Amino acid sequence: MAKAARALESAAALLGKEDFEGSANRAYYAMFHAARAALASRNVEIRTRKHGILIGQFSRHFIADGTLPKALGRTINEVQKLRHVGDYDAPTLARTDAEEALHSAQEFVAAIERLLRG
User: Fold this and answer.
1) Three-class secondary structure of residue 46 per DSSP
2) Which of 8, 27, 52, 66 is the most buried (most CB within 10 A)?
């Protein structure tokens, strides 16, 4: 969760510097690290670097069983797509995209923190 918190801080700082692609990237990684922490809390170890597998396992263990709301499962996928566009595609992201990614990441990380506190 410490990595998730640092990534959220970075996402906010990059948004403030109008680095919208960087902000969306760090927002996604905040969610990614929080999802890894949630899975680790259930002794689910992900040994691959493939993000889709981690997201699928997160969905299986926390969304499909109703532990967390379906909206959280959708948001990690949406922010991953924004990260991909920002990292690899020619069009740049708009401020609103980065703001939405950051907001989604903040909500996601907060939900995982509540879950882990029990």
Assistant:
1) coil
2) 27
